[in-house]
């Protein structure tokens, strides 16, 4: 997502409001905001890692090849139960399909 800080903050606030209205649990929301950028920018991240121009990139970027991998990563961080994993999967599938950002 390109934009200045104010635009990004406004966008994220809108997404958060939509998730609140949909009664998405707070832990699923946190997991979503953690891994959604990795899913939505997977191609760019993979390309940056393959270029290898900057060795520090591999220390800060995680490449996820699928929504399943993103949910597994979120589960490691947030210890999501099965229902939360399913909710996160559905959110990522909908966001990935529409490419918000």
Q: What tags apply to this protein structure?
A:
single chain; mainly alpha
Write up this protein.
The mean pLDDT is 85. The protein is mainly alpha-helical and 101 residues long. It is built from 6 helices and no strands. It has helices at residues 5-21, 26-40, 42-51, 57-60, 67-78, 82-98.
Radius of gyration (CA) equals 14 Å
Query: Which oligomeric form is depicted?
Result: single chain
Strand content: under 5%
The total beta strand count reads 0
pLDDT under 50 segments (min length 5)?
A: none
The chain-level structural class is mainly alpha
Helix fraction, binned, reads over 70%
What's the N-to-C terminus distance?
4 Å
Number of domains: 1
Tertiary shape = globular
Biggest sheet layout: none
Average of pLDDT: 85
The sequence of SSEs as H and E is HHHHHH
**Total count of helical runs of at least 4 residues:** 6
